Amino acid sequence: MAWLISQSEVDAFLSCRRKHYYGYGEKLQPKRHGEGLTRGLLGHEVLAAYYAQFVAAGKALPSQVQVVNSALEVINRNATVDLSNIELLLQLRSLLEQYFHFYEDEFSQWEILAVEKEFRYGDFPFKPDLIKRHRYNGQVYVVDHKFLYNFYNPSMVDIMPQLPKYVGALREIGFPVTGAEYNMLRHRLNAKEKFKRLRVEFTDRKIETFLTEQQIIAEKIRELKDGSLEEWKEKSVRTASSFNCQHCSFLSLCTTDINGYAGRDLLVRSMYEPNTYGYTDDIEGELV
């Protein structure tokens, strides 16, 4: 079977093979997320709703006020369902309102081509947060949104594989992508600088290296998936460290398994649900 292996799955596998097994073998995800993941997921959803209204809009741009209000409805809907994170939701709403005001003139220079559109390079599926094109020089950039306590520094970005993989894969399937950037929103309350866009520099060698490593790790994952679930579990050793485990959403399940505690099935039913990972089987379409 030709398994599709995403960047997120490779990242989970390299982080901890047991964590990867829970998420992609048993196909579990937590019913409730931690504060950081909740902020990131909801923030991405709001930004997707915002930028989707500008896709292929040309010069006939929609009303900024209407677009902002429509995007922020994502937070309003979430608040009506779950009030347990109301402080986080209010802080996120304030941050995004500031963001929309800070970058309200960006569409005079940039045209939005795609928002969370699925692409595939061989068996590597990927979904960039945003693809934009400069209105005057025609340069095309892949954008990844990040909600951070502190901004990335250039040395950290230099070793991160996600955006070089996306750019390289898009070029391989025929899209003339110029480069990439991280769109960073800083949620630290006392931070003076809240927003920064950091261009990612990479050579052809870097792109080739990261795409090759994607294929190597993907093949290791496929070997696990081609076997039985029990064999996969036995081979999934833990990366047990304070750094890795303290924020892991599978910590309770992993602790139960390693100690042989009773009640595993009850724990799974109460804390986890079937995950929503995955990509469509048929991906078509072009950038405008």
Cα-to-Cα separation, first versus last residue: 33 Å
CATH-derived architecture of the largest domain: 3-Layer(aba) Sandwich
- Please report which band the strand proportion falls in: under 5%, 5-15%, 15-25%, 25-35%, 35-45% or over 45%: 15-25%
Given as residue ranges, the uncertain stretches (5+ residues, pLDDT < 50) are 281-285
Percent in helix: 40-55%
- SSE class: alpha+beta
The major sheet is characterized as: 5 strands, mixed
Give the CATH class of the largest domain.
Alpha Beta
Give the radius of gyration: 20 Å
Q: Count every beta strand, where a strand is a DSSP E run of 2 or more residues.
A: 9
CATH fold-level name of the largest domain: Trna Endonuclease, Chain: A, domain 1
How many domain units?
Answer: 2
- Tally of separate helices: 12
Helix and strand run: HHEHHHEEEEEHHEEHHHHHE
Apparent shape: globular
Average the pLDDT over all residues and give the rounded result.
Answer: 91
The neighbouring-strand order within the major sheet is 2-5-6-7-8
Molecular structure report:
- The protein is an alpha+beta fold.
- The protein folds into 2 domains: 29-108, no CATH class; 112-236, Trna Endonuclease, Chain: A, domain 1 (3-Layer(aba) Sandwich).
- 48% of the residues lie in helices and 16% in strands.
- The protein has 12 helices and 9 strands.
- It has helices at 7-15, 17-25, 35-52, 64-81, 86-102, 154-157, 162-172, 204-226, 229-235, 242-245, 251-259, 264-271, and strands at 28-30, 110-115, 119-121, 124-126, 130-134, 140-148, 179-186, 195-200, 272-274.
- The chain has a 5-stranded mixed beta sheet with strand order 2-5-6-7-8.
- A hairpin with an 8-residue loop joins strand 7 (179-186) and strand 8 (195-200).
- Helix 1 crosses helix 2 and helix 2 (17-25) packs antiparallel against helix 9.
- The longest helix has 23 residues, at 204-226.
- Mean pLDDT is 91; it is low at 281-285.
